[in-house]
């Protein structure tokens, strides 16, 4: 059995005709390529550090390992850049797919709005966690904290 995917039908050809102002679709097209190149470096750097260069490899990844990385400004900025680019790249890609395949304007507006809300929530929460994460909060029950907090 084979499935046929209908040809994409970009819904807004008239929008760009004679339209003034910055060409946001072109900017989005360039952003997808530029962010893709940067993501290759960030994602493979992330995997290489965690899995190849850290003694113990994947078995060494635990709460303390992540807590240690998130205490270092270098990795905070690496992770937050990776988060922002992956979410903006992924959500802009999803927006393109919706524009190609969703023909009813109301459904398209709802779908693109939902993608935007999901992206904003993930970016806000992810950024907040990256910069505020504390593996040993002072007010917490010591029984719930990792062992290394006792020596701090
Ligand atoms: C390894 C890094 C990555 C590279 C080099 C890359 C590259 C690209 C490029 C060049 C496009 C544009 C394709 C086109 O316009 O036809 C694209 C589209 C897309 N990317 Fe990525 N990407 C990467 C990572 C990601 C990640 C992490 C996500 C999800 C969070 C993602 C989700 C998407 C989606 C949803 C599209 C739209 C697909 C479409 O238009 O058919 N990509 N990617």
UniProtKB/TrEMBL annotation:
- The signal peptide stretch is none
What are the UniProt keywords, alphabetically?
Answer: Heme, Iron, Membrane, Metal-binding, Transmembrane, Transmembrane helix
Single GO MF annotation = metal ion binding
Which SUPFAM superfamilies does this one have?
Answer: Fumarate reductase respiratory complex transmembrane subunits (SSF81343)
Q: Which InterPro entries match?
A: SQR/QFR_C/D, SuccDH_FuR_B_TM-su
Q: Where in the cell is it found?
A: Membrane
Protein name per Swiss-Prot or TrEMBL: Succinate dehydrogenase hydrophobic membrane anchor subunit
Source organism of this protein record: Agrococcus sediminis
């Amino acid at each position: 059995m084979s499935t046929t995917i209908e040809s994409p039908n970009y819904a807004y050809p008239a929008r760009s005709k004679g339209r003034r102002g910055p060409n946001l679709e072109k900017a989005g097209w360039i952003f997808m390529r530029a962010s893709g190149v940067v993501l290759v470096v960030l994602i493979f750097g992330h995997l290489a550090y965690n899995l190849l260069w850290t003694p113990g490899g994947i078995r060494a990844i635990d709460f303390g390992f992540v807590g240690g990385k998130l205490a270092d400004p270098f990795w905070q900025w690496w992770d937050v850049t990776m988060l922002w680019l992956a979410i903006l790249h992924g959500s802009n890609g999803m927006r393109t797919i919706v524009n190609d395949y969703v023909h009813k304007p109301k459904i398209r507006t709802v779908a693109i709005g939902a993608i935007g809300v999901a992206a904003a929530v993930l970016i806000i929460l992810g950024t907040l966690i990256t910069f505020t994460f504390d593996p040993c909060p002072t007010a917490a029950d010591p029984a719930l904290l990792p062992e290394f907090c006792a020596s701090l």
